[in-house]
Design goal:
Pfam family, one: DUF7351
Domain DUF7351: 7-95
Number of strands: 8
Number of domains: 1
Helix content: 10-25%
Mean pLDDT: 80
Region (Disordered): 96-120
Shape: globular
Strand order of the largest sheet: 7-6-5-4-8
Protein name: DUF7351 domain-containing protein
Length: 120
């Protein structure tokens, strides 16, 4: 998995190649973390099964923002019912760290704070 970053630092796509069939796909970074244990748990705590969502519509609650290019780090976040989950993603698509803030400690995020819609 390798990231491709647009000049505006807001559009990040991961390129993935299947080792079996050699097919490739470019996708939003959100898809690289959608099955991470912290994400599945976060959605489960809100009565949702994130793994049942179609890949072409992960939801408008997701955001992505490139934090650094050296070392490369992308912030992928989601917010449900005021609770916020932030994942720090490496260039290879793995989650380096994550942070969860409940509604009483999480501030309402704005697009300018976290980034653009992941699904966009």
């Amino acid at each position: 998995m390798t990231p491709e970053t647009a000049d505006d630092r807001s559009a990040v796509q991961f390129s993935c190649d299947c080792s079996r069939c050699r097919a490739g796909v470019d996708c939003p970074a959100t898809l690289a973390v959608i099955d991470h244990a912290a994400v599945v748990s976060f959605y489960d705590d809100h009565g949702q099964d994130v793994t049942e969502r179609p890949l072409w519509n992960v939801g408008p609650e997701w955001r992505e923002r490139l934090l650094s290019t050296d070392p490369w780090c992308l912030l992928v976040s989601t917010q449900l019912e005021g609770d916020l989950l932030e994942l720090y993603v490496r260039a290879d698509g793995t989650v380096h760290d994550h942070r969860r803030r409940d509604g009483d400690t999480a501030t309402q995020r704005e697009t300018t704070d976290i980034g653009d819609d992941a699904a966009a």
